[in-house]
Amino acid sequence: MQILPKGIHWVPSYLDAKAQSLLVDDIRDIVTKAPLFVPCMPRTGKPMSVRMTNCGALGWVTDQHQGYRYQETHPTTGIQWPQMPKSVADIWEELSGCAYPAEACLVNFYEPSAKMGLHQDRDEEEYLSPVVSISLGDTCLFRMGGTNRSDKTSSIKLKSGDAVMLSGESRLCFHGVDRIYPDTSSLLKQGGRINLTLRRVTKPE
Ligand code: SIN
Ligand code: FE2
Predict the structure, then answer these.
(1) CATH topology of domain 2-199
(2) 177 in ligand 1 pocket by Cβ < 6 Å?
(3) Which tens digits make up the pLDDT trace of 95-128?
(4) Ligand 1: which atom is nearest the Cα of residue 193?
(5) Residues 6+ positions from 2 with CB-CB distance below 8 Å
(6) Given the CA of residue 142, which atom of ligand 1 is nearest to it?
(7) How far is CA 165 from the centre of its chain?
(8) Where exactly are the structural domains of the chain?
């Protein structure tokens, strides 16, 4: 594990090849039950370039009129999110150090041209629990800053199997994905990148 400036934790090669491919099988199952949707920016309605779905009790969604939020159901099917698979729950247990479970696992799918602007994760009820993130598939350029948008940023390349954790002083650090490097992994047959973001949303007991 490496501790980056601002206290961001980075675990290169956290998952081995076998664990990555089992995780992709679980994600495929989730996408069958809860299809990828196109998230749209609050107010402008501009579509984001990533496609999303979720598993767990709560899922993160966004659209023009209701904006960023967590909800128990898929925005287009209206069905509850699929259960969080054990593979994902185990990652949370091991990396977060929390005795309570994660409630939400956001699945982001990046085509080679997709990116994600610099933002903070702040739609949760409190920020005491970490945000745990797993990269699968093609390598990306991950940008990190401080807790003010104007703070200096630096970048690392996240590879398939890497984990990143925002916790403590880094919990509200700005972060984003500048670009995907196509054909850098053979994990996903169609190419692209998947990111899993595991979070606790409500205050634990
Ligand atoms: C996110 O912050 O929602 C995604 C980060 C990533 O794709 O690594
Ligand atoms: Fe984020």
Answers:
(1) Jelly Rolls (2.60.120)
(2) yes
(3) 999 999 999 999 999 999 999 999 999 999 999 9
(4) 7
(5) 9, 10, 11, 12
(6) 8
(7) 10
(8) 2-199
